[in-house]
Amino acid sequence: MPLVKRYSTGFVTLVLLFFSASASADEFDQFFEKHSVVMLLIEPQSGKIFKANQAASEYYGYSRNKLNQMYIQQINALSPEAVAAERELARKENRNYFIFRHRLADGSIRTVEVSSVPVKLNRQNYLFSIITDVNDLRAAEDSLWHYQNRLEEMVDQQLSHLRSKDIFIYTLLAIALTSLLIAAIAMAYMLYRKRKTSTRLQLEKSRLDDIIWGTNAGTWERDFLSERIEINPRWAEITGLELQDLEPFTLSALESMIHPDDLAEMQHKLNQHLTGKLDHYQCEYRIRHQRDHWVWVLDRGRIVQRDRSGNPSRLCGTLQDISSSKRAHIQLEHMAHYDQLTHLANRTLFYDRLNHALASAKRYPTRFAVMFLDLDGFKAVNDQYGHHVGDALLAEVARRLQATIRESDTCARMGGDEFALLIYHLDKASSATVVAEHILQSLRQPYELEGHKLTNISCSIGVALYPDHDSSSGNTLVQLADDAMYLAKRSGKNKFAFAVERAGSANENADTHQQSVDS
What we know:
Elements: H1 9-21, H2 25-34, E1 38-42, E2 49-52, H3 54-60, H4 64-67, H5 72-75, H6 80-92, E3 98-103, E4 109-121, E5 124-133, H7 135-163, H8 165-215, E6 218-223, E7 228-231, H9 233-238, H10 251-257, H11 260-274, E8 281-288, E9 294-306, E10 312-321, H12 323-337, H13 347-363, E11 368-376, H14 378-385, H15 387-404, E12 410-415, E13 418-423, H16 430-444, E14 447-449, E15 452-454, E16 458-466, H17 474-490, E17 495-498, E18 514-516
Parallel strand pairs: 16-17
Antiparallel strand pairs: 1-2, 1-5, 3-4, 4-5, 6-7, 6-10, 8-9, 9-10, 11-13, 11-16, 12-13, 14-15, 17-18
Helix pairs in contact: 14-15, 15-16
């Protein structure tokens, strides 16, 4: 809200007298509308604002139409009693203006001088008022008055102080000497504590260095302001590099060294710690070695410093080479899920994938086949040529089985000379027939093993289909396929058979369940 200019009381008085005495209505309107002084025409009896100029609208923050509908009592913040008291004070002080408090449209209250004279326009009597904002001036005058009073108090105080100068000086000197003595004692104690703390920190650093050396771990410290990562020589050594080869080292440089398959996991776990979801960061990932192979590492860290806003500013941690333990773990995982002779999936892994296929098929309907396979004549090979030839035969059978199915399918050794296959995504039941015939044809071919030629090897296959046959569980499907395999074996070698159907099945009739492949 713009402030009204401060005009002298004499100027305001001359304007009021001029227009009350000699101005015509046109001259008054022209002056009233165009002058930058706040002017109001007020009905004397009711206090209603008859007319307000543009300067008044800008000062009070109301539109002119709004002002012309208001009463001066709505603007004057003083009570009627306070207004009467001000008028009486002006009369006693022999001044022709009043000091009021006017409320603006935004709710703020300003101190104003109001100079008013009666005028007659169009045969109507009005109070012609000129309003001058004196808020800042009054505040300055009040401040000056308070300053003068405070100055007098300060002079009195200084005189009082001067009278007791000697006592004050001696007291001050005694306090100063005592303070210096206490400060000297405190300084000596602080130096002692600092020396003791420094010694302890040095011992802790030495102990920490020994621990780090003993664990053979690399260390790192990330500064979020500069985005630099400080590392020790062991960290660089893990990657086959020298410390100077990695200067300057940043987060982007680190991410470029991480295996693409591991980078997203590392970024996710680091972000979880930085956002407070985890109390520390820990991740296993592969990092590229200078000799172009991958090294498995365990990366661990924690926020050790935050800025005033609570955001992380420093992160410290360690990096350990876990390649040996990772290889051992992977080997144990492989031994737990794969057959050591044929390197096919073992019984445990087969049932795990079968149960997963069942669960997936119930959500997204599809057809798949479980095949159970047993070699014909395997015992004779063991008896005639020995177990080493029998093992070689099993390995070759595994290789041929893998070659007859897709990479997405599963082939497993269930034990001895028994194998199981999980054939996914069959468009129709007859597709399983094609796969079984292909397997029979492949395994019937002669074998050259350990200097021996085997020509009488074949197999028997049992087939169970989901959802055509009883599929309440993986064990049920395998049992159905096993029963069908024995059905095929009883009808002769090198044959396959489907499991017995449930009532109402739309598959081929029982006469088509047993088939053979000619050599």
